[in-house]
Structure formats: structure tokens, C-alpha cells
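Something for you to look into today, if you have time. What I am after is a single protein written out in full by you. I want to see for myself how the chain folds. Could you add the entry underneath, on a fresh line?
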Amino acid sequence: MSDFYKKILDNNKEWVEQSLAKDPNYFQDLAKGQTPPLLWIGCSDSRVPANEIIGAKPGEVFVHRNIANMVVHTDMNMLSVLDYAVNVLKVKHVLVCGHYGCGGIKAAMGNSSIGIIDNWIRHIKDVYRLHYEYLDSIEDEEKRFNTFVEINVKEQVFDLAKTSIVQSAWKNGQELTLHGWVYGLNSGFVTDLQVNISSNKDLDEVYQLKF
């Protein structure tokens, strides 16, 4: 057994002991069910831990992560998580959180082939294509990179609003608001991008579904 593998097993035991020391019923209470108010759609980057960033405890955040926090309409994994969160858990908030320094966003700004991930990054490139005139006008590469991170998050929030899952919830009078944030790896702070959507009226008419 490698030292690393043994270490993470030992860490688990230590975490259990510390949790029970604070509350003997900690795990029994968790096992009874979950009623998180928030679905977090974030990047797979190991430096962006959803619960820790917002000071949430286990059971308070339902989480889906993928490279560059994308909302792809053919991604059955993301759609299944979204459907369960909205229709079963009845979350009141869905938050897309990107982060500055995102490798997926950086890759989408270039032309290097990485491997099978090229197919996923193409979705990110589609976002760049929609905003290329503005992005290409930004001469400073770092600023262009950060701006693209922000624009991508905003587009994913709007893509969430376009789903039948979210629009059906709104149609049924369910309280549900979509948000967009960007996390700063070098500061720990989040930036609220002020894209908060709670009805399909914020979408172009072609995307407004009629049930």
C-alpha cells in the first residue's frame, strides 16, 4: 500500500473521529436525508472546493462539476443532476461558479490538440466565437483570459435558463433563481457577476418554452 493511499484512509478515520467528537449524532443525522437549498455547478479543478468556499456543511450543497463549469444541453450527467436538484430536492438556487486561471478556458483560447478533451473544449470555443470581436479587442492577454472566464459563466447561466427543466419549474411557480460567480484562486474571494435569473422573460423569445 502506497504512503499516499494509506494517508487518505487515515485522514478519513481522523475526520470521522473529529466529527463525532463535536456531535455524536453527526452521521446518523446526515443519513436521514438531504434538503440542500443550492445546486453548485462548478469546475473540476481541485483548487475550487464548493463547500469550503461558501462555508457550507455536508448536506447543504448539491454539486455537479465538469471542466470549465459547462452547461451542455446534450450532457445527460449534468441534466440528470439538474433534474434531481430542481424536481426532487427543490433547490431554490442554482449557481454556476467559474474561476480565474481555468485551464479549460485557457485551452479554448488556443489551437493545441490535447486529446479526447478537445471535443469538450469545442463547446467552450463556441462561447468564444459568440464574443470574439469583443474578446479579440482586449490587447492584454491576461485581461482577455479573465474576461473570457466571466463571459463563459454568464453564458452557462443563460444556458441553464434555456433548459426545459428550469423553465418547467418556473411555469409551475417554483421558487428558483440562477446565479453566476467567478472564484479567485489567488484571493479566495468570489465575484458576483450580477447575472441573476428567476424567469424565462430574460431570454430571447425563441428560447421561451410554452407548456
About this structure: The two ends are 56 Å apart (CA to CA). The mean pLDDT is 97. The CA atoms of residues 100 and 184 lie 6 Å apart.
